[in-house]
Amino acid sequence: MRRRALVAGLLAAPGLARAEGPFPERPIRLVIPWPPGGTNDIVGRLVSEGMAARLGQPVVIENRGGAGGMLGAEAVAKAAPDGYTLVLGGSGSLTITSLVQARVPYDVATAFAPVGLMGVGPNVVVVHPSVAARDLRELQAVARGAAPPLSYASPGVGSTGHAAGAMIAQVLDVPMEHIPYRGTGPALNDLIAGRVQVFTNALAPLQPHIRSGAVRALAIAGRQRSSAMPELATTGEQGFPGIEAATWFGLLATGGTAPERILRLHGALNAALMDPEIRRRLVEGGLEVEPSASPEEFARFFAEDRARWAPVVRRAAMRVD
Predict the structure, then answer these.
(1) Cβ contact 280:272 at 8 Å
(2) How far is the CA of 264 from the CAs of 33, 90, 114, in angstroms?
(3) How far, in Å, CA of 185 to CA of 41, rounded?
(4) Ramachandran bin of 176, using left for φ above 0, alpha for ψ from -120 to 50, beta for the remaining angles
(5) Which range among 9-23, 98-112, 208-222, 280-294 shows the weakest confidence by mean pLDDT?
(6) Which of 110, 125, 131 is nearest to 235 (CA)?
(7) Distance from first CA to last CA of the chain, Å, rounded?
(8) Partners of 122 in the β-ladder
């Protein structure tokens, strides 16, 4: 029943009176609720360029990180419902954060109007080269003998990386200490410096560091291997099918935005995702491009994602008061 209620809330967006003139008539603001340098930033900037060309108006990026993506999401939730303020949402910033934080300044079921899904990127589990492990079985052995416990970085409390790290510790049955950062970039910097040992994140920002040897990839945390790194075995192939964490990326407007404006944005988004060059660059960055057929389809996906992560958060006792 909760899932049906969430879908109903996401789809019930009361329309505004039709504005005079075509939409959009001025630049659109796209809030990325994370600092520059992470996967969200890479994906958002690529897609914004493609959408701007099709909408005939600039799509201006605003990085607003903090609170696991909640600060940026709040800015969009409280904006005018006119389609001119969008948020690049994801499993961390919208789904997991709303499950972890006891006080969320908006109702995730009604504060946003889903526009469209961009795609899904399976997370990759990486370690600092000082960790003597080349797969998950070896990581389990190292973690069991580590004193003090190994630490795992995340882009922030309530991020996908936070939940995925808790899931890894849970499935491997090892103690690990969570170290939250203000975004992927700072977390990755400390991983490369050896201040933390484990990190789970989407592939795009990790790929160059994996190739250079600055970090070591252990597994793809998904059911299928990544087309960007097909040689890397999945967690299931290594005997740990319970470790599955993918980061999705989608576009949402403020709840109450007129349906015709949502459809205009959805069309521009899907056209951008079908652009061969944009699609190529997204795939090379580790994103499996999977545009939604309609805003309603994305709304259902959004609701189902929340239902999937809720028991993980509960079992890992991740809730923050």
Answers:
(1) no
(2) 23, 21, 12
(3) 10
(4) beta
(5) 9-23
(6) 125
(7) 26
(8) 246
**Under a CB-based contact definition with an 8 Å cutoff, are residues 205 and 217 in contact?**
no
Higher pLDDT pick, 251 / 91: 251
| Angstrom distance (rounded) from CA 321 to CA 317 | 11
User: In this structure, which amino acid lies at residue 185?
Assistant: G
The label of the residue with tokens 């969570």 reads 178
> What sign does the dihedral 67-73-76-77 (CA atoms) show?
negative
Query: Which percentage of the chain shows pLDDT scores above 90?
Result: 63
Residue type for position 238: Q
Q: Per residue in 67-118, pLDDT tens?
A: 778 899 999 999 999 999 999 998 888 888 888 888 899 999 899 999 999 9
* CA 221 to chain CA mean position, Å: 14
- What SS3 string covers the chain? CHHHHHHHHHHCCCCCCCCCCCCCCCCEEEEECCCCCCHHHHHHHHHHHHHHHHHCCCEEEEECCCHHHHHHHHHHHCCCCCCCEEEEEEHHHHHHHHHHECCCCCCCCCCEEEEEEEEEEEEEEEECCCCCCCCHHHHHHHHHHCCCCEEEEECCCCCHHHHHHHHHHHHHCCCEEEEECCCHHHHHHHHHHCCCCEEEEECCCCHHHHHHCCCEEEEEECCCCECCECCCCECCCCCCCCCCCEEEEEEEEECCCCHHHHHHHHHHHHHHHHCHHHHHHHHHCCCEECCCCCHHHHHHHHHHHHHHHHHHHHHCCCCEC
| Structure tokens belonging to residue 16 | 């505004």
For residue 110, the one-letter residue type is T
Q: In whole numbers, what is the pLDDT of the chain averaged over residues? A: 89
